[in-house]
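Good day; I would like, with your permission, to put a structural problem before you. What I wish to show you is a protein chain and, alongside it, a tokenised description of its three-dimensional fold. Please examine both parts with care and let me know of anything in them that strikes you as inconsistent. Thank you for your consideration; the sequence and its tokens are set out here:

***
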Amino acid sequence: MLGESPISVFMVTVGLGSILVGMVEFIWGADPIAPPNFMPTKPFFIGPAYVSPKIAISFAIAAVAILMFLVLFRYWRGGVALRATATDQGAAYSCGINVPRVFSLAWIAAGMAAAGAGILIGSIGGVSPTMGIFGLSVLVVVIVGGLDSIAGALIAGLFIGAVEALAGTYLGGEYKLLITFGILVLMLMVRPYGLFGTVEIERL
């Protein structure tokens, strides 16, 4: 997928994920498994609001990880190479950046982040082949926020998460993805490059 657009890479990843889910269900079954409990279970309250300690701890860990990634992207030489390659692979090649190695680094970092996220999510709802189904919402997040904007992805992620939570509470869980993808269709019609994405102007 070197040289392909981000949306193409994302769709190939979704397709490969579907194949892997089917393989896991075929080999190990589809029943969820409860992992060892390593987080506190006693709930606490912020005013009248009930807060699950597992979700709060997971949110804090995710926030720290995102902050670390932002710092690395901004100040680490490898992070600068990642940003340059994501912006323009041809220009990155011309500057002496080893683009295939940068792609390998990106996939390694993404795999580590996904493994950590899987541990946190598994501790909340159990481990199952379909625990990554929420990844479909990621497509909405990156398009709404902008494919080339980290800040946009963060803001859109919080917005889509809040919308899904409200939709599940007041309309029912079956409407969560409906509302989410409705936002996606609306965004593609109004602002296809996202709220914070770079506007691309092409000559015909």
Strands lie at 44-46, 49-51. The first strand starts at residue 44 and ends at 46. The mean pLDDT is 81.
